[in-house]
Amino acid sequence: MKEITILSGKGGAGKTSIAAALASLARNAVFCDNDVDAADLHLILKPKIKETHPFDSGSLAFINQEECTNCGTCLEACRFEAIFTNSDGFPEINPYQCEGCLLCERLCPVGTIQTTQNRNNQWFISDTRFGLMVHAKMGPGEENSGKLVTRIREKAKELARENKAQFIINDGPPGIGCTAISSITGTNAVLLVIEPTVSGLHDAKRLVELVNSFKVSIYAIINKHDINLEFTATVARYLIDNNIPLVGKIPFSEMFVECMLSEKSLVEYAPNHPISLNLKTIWEKISKNSIH
Questions:
Q1: Using 50, 70 and 90 to split pLDDT, how confident is the model at 290?
Q2: In a 3-state reduction of DSSP, which class is residue 227?
Q3: CB neighbours (10 Å) of residue 192?
Q4: How high does pLDDT run on average in the chain?
Q5: Residue 167: which H helix or E strand, with range?
Q6: Which residues of 217-249 are buried (b: 16+ CB within 10 A; e: fewer)?
Q7: pTM for this one?
Q8: Are residues 170 and 241 in the same domain?
Q9: Torsion angle in degrees (nearest 10) through CA of 9, 13, 19, 21
Q10: In 3D, which of 287, 267, 286 has the Cα closest to residue 277?
């Protein structure tokens, strides 16, 4: 069983479109959307949910103002400035700034502050037309997204073992944050999607540095390579200098938008289009030759 994680240094590079295309090409695979903060692979794969599970994203504090003595201890102690004085002159907690550290609860001299587990998050096991998918939904501003990625990846591996799947394909998050770190740990290979722009290469370099720290193999695709052929050559030189195999280049095409509006991958929408054939070649390189 091989686990392939598709990542990009920045948003908008085309990572999810490529992940969906590879999902439609893979046989006997389990899919996992690791971009839990802004999941969108489901827009193309249209999963039918089989199981729903809650996820605790952290603790939230609440002040019982009927018992509060207004001593000000919590206001002074909160380093996140999550506690403010409301219009009634009593301390109140802003749930979007509260980090759930429990310090105010511990320091309150009359025990009027209580914390509860925030369960405004869920993860799912679903069927898609290509196979099983594990994905999640987090509320705005929720915490522990990296822990959630770890949880759904564990489940994807469990399902892959049970179903004797040959591949796990992860649509990872952009950037180098906690969710990216959780997506890289223990994967067999990273497929890096790079946009040939200054910011695209800059952010890709940061991501390469992160992936290398985990000693995970990296392969690269330059997406929208024809928007700046000179800079595409610069990206290609960077990949050569850093021993990163370039498995394919994909031109800019409005067809990606058309297929998304049709809720299909490009390979489904136009199977004989040159880009679809290119993606098939890329998948063959990754699945058969590039990952050991």
A1: very low
A2: helix
A3: 26
A4: 92
A5: strand 167-174
A6: bbbbbbbbbeebeebbeebbebbeeeebebbbb
A7: 0.83
A8: yes
A9: -160
A10: 267
